[in-house]
Design a protein that fits this description.
By secondary structure, this protein is α+β, with helices and mostly antiparallel strands. It is 25% helix and 20% strand. The chain starts with 12 loop residues before the first strand and ends in a 59-residue tail after the last strand.
């Protein structure tokens, strides 16, 4: 595949902008607080010319409400954000006391690399907007190296159960996430897991994760994260960032309607290097089933008959 090949709506898209290697794929859907769903895209940014720089992974690119999945549009959004970060970097060099809004969209090495490859990012943006519209000598990009997928290659066969090992119960950040981190540090991981398990709505939560493809072959690990387990639950948390992610193991028995009611496909995921990568900025402070975190549920654990 080259940069002029229009990908299908949800396949992995890879692009090169100078020394920047970009990969983006469809990562399920996120419920919008005003109703409806937004398509979510995950991505990886790498640059082999930056000494010691680990690939940066994120899951914070979203479509408009109700839009169809389109990885080309997702890649366009990623390039736009990188270009904005590059412009902020340039502005701060000229105005050292300024604090441009887009300066901290990415880790510092990504922002600097975007600035150094700003011309190539501009060319890539044009190619994405007008595929095949540039002359053969006008392209500043090429296909990026392949990104390792943690999921199985499509075979056309019915997906096996389970599609992954864990699914998301709830992900919190910012004020809500820091409150759970405080609880964990004051009363221990067990208290934090018990607190977050209140938002496990049993089969409803699992079905929402299946529909939204919010499941994982392994517990997501990023720089500075720690882990705690309790029965089927795994809590992944980053105290410094105030992010907490409660996951639950899939039961041994598939739900009724599997796989016809669900996609059953694990989206591409970062390779082993992601274990040390910078944590992505997730945006949804909601449960996998789309429940807002207020008001607090009265119960402490679901009683839905799900078993391992």
């Amino acid at each position: 595949m080259n940069n002029d090949t229009p990908p299908s709506a949800r396949e992995l898209v890879t692009r090169q902008a100078g020394s920047l290697s970009l990969a983006l794929w469809h990562d399920g859907t996120t419920p919008d607080e005003d109703g409806g769903y937004r398509q979510r895209y995950a991505y990886r940014i790498a640059d082999a010319t930056v000494p010691g720089a680990l690939p940066h992974d994120g899951r914070d690119i979203h479509s408009g409400v109700g839009a169809d999945g389109d990885t080309t549009a997702g890649m366009t959004s990623l390039v736009t954000l990188l270009s904005a970060a590059a412009e902020s970097y340039r502005h701060q060099m000229s105005n050292p006391l300024s604090a441009p809004e887009s300066l901290n969209l990415f880790p510092a090495w990504v922002t600097e690399a975007a600035y150094l490859n700003s011309d190539e990012l501009t060319m890539l943006a044009l190619e994405l907007e007008h595929p095949g519209g540039l002359g053969p000598n006008e392209s500043a990009t090429a296909e990026a190296p392949p990104v390792t997928s943690a999921g199985p290659e499509p075979t056309g066969e019915a997906p096996a159960w389970p599609p992954g090992r864990y699914y998301t119960v709830i992900f919190l950040q910012d004020e809500e996430g820091h409150a759970v981190v405080d609880l964990l540090q004051d009363q221990g991981a067990q208290a934090a897991i018990d607190h977050l398990a209140q938002w496990d709505y049993g089969s409803e939560t699992m079905e929402a994760a299946l529909f939204n493809q919010d499941y994982h072959a392994d517990v997501p690990h990023y720089s500075g994260t720690s882990e705690a387990t309790d029965g089927p639950y795994v809590l992944s948390y980053q105290p410094g960032l105030g992010t907490v992610h409660l996951l639950r193991q899939f039961p041994a028995q598939a739900p009724d309607g599997w796989p016809n009611r669900y996609t059953g496909v694990i989206d591409p995921a970062p390779g082993p290097a992601a274990a040390q990568a910078v944590a992505p900025r997730a945006t949804a402070t909601r449960t996998a089933a789309g429940h807002a975190i207020d008001p607090e549920p009265a119960r402490t654990r679901p009683d839905d008959g799900l078993s391992l």
